[in-house]
Amino acid sequence: MKRSVMTPTGAVTLTQEGGALVALEWGGGYCDESDVLIRAERQIAEYFAGARPVFDLPLVVRGSQFQQDVCAVMATIPFGETLTYGDIARRLGAPAQAVGQACGGNPIPLIIPCHRVLGARGLGGFSGGVGVDTKVWLLKHEGAGGLLI
Q1: CA torsion angle for 54, 48, 139, 20 (degrees, to 10)?
Q2: Catalytic site includes residue 114
Q3: Residue 57 DSSP symbol
Q4: Active site residue: 31, 71, 103, 114, which one?
Q5: Phi, psi at residue 38, to the nearest 5°?
Q6: Torsion angle in degrees (nearest 10) through CA of 67, 69, 70, 74
Q7: Helix or strand or coil: residue 35?
Q8: Burial state string for 5-16 with b = 16 or more CB within 10 A and e = fewer than 16
Q9: In terms of DSSP bridges, do strands 10-17 and 2-7 run parallel, antiparallel, or are they unpaired?
């Protein structure tokens, strides 16, 4: 099941399988309804309204164990805070480049906040929305914009 919702960063489509969200992609055109999809839509609206710093949704990260581990660490980064790829790499005992690739492969961006992961000397990439501009918008929205100056 898929449901699209409008956000300040463009339309996003949520994908639900088996009672959990498995994907969030920028783009629209879907209108399925389920309890999980409606709850996700409401929580995304609350996030963009500044009223929800933490998402509380059932998630399933499909991918390798490493992908799941990186997503689990990203999910712990608090609203308005950031980590570097190197920070996550040290926690997991893995190369920073592998962490960067796993961040880029995050199947549920925004809800699993890969936008809160920065490079050691810059923003790093972002695969959602219009790329780095979307990452910058999200960080500013969360009050982490001072890191960008």
Answers
A1: 50
A2: yes
A3: -
A4: 114
A5: -65, -40
A6: 130
A7: helix
A8: bebebeebbbbb
A9: antiparallel
A 10 A CB-CB count for 99 gives 27
> Mean pLDDT of residues grouped by 10 in the chain (149 residues)?
97 97 96 97 98 97 97 97 96 96 96 94 83 92 74
Residue 53 is encoded by which pair of tokens?
Answer: 């710093």
Alpha helical stretches, state H, 75-131? 85-92, 96-104
Encoded amino acid at 65, one letter: Q
The shares of helix, strand and coil residues in the chain, as percent rounded to the nearest 5, are 40, 20, 40
Which H or E element spans position 16? Answer: strand 10-17
CA distance 85 to 16: 28
To 5 degrees, how large is the angle CA 52–CA 7–CA 35?
A: 65
| pTM of this prediction exceeds 0.85 | yes
Strand 83-84 to 2-7 pairing:
unpaired
Q: What is the pLDDT of residue 145?
A: 65
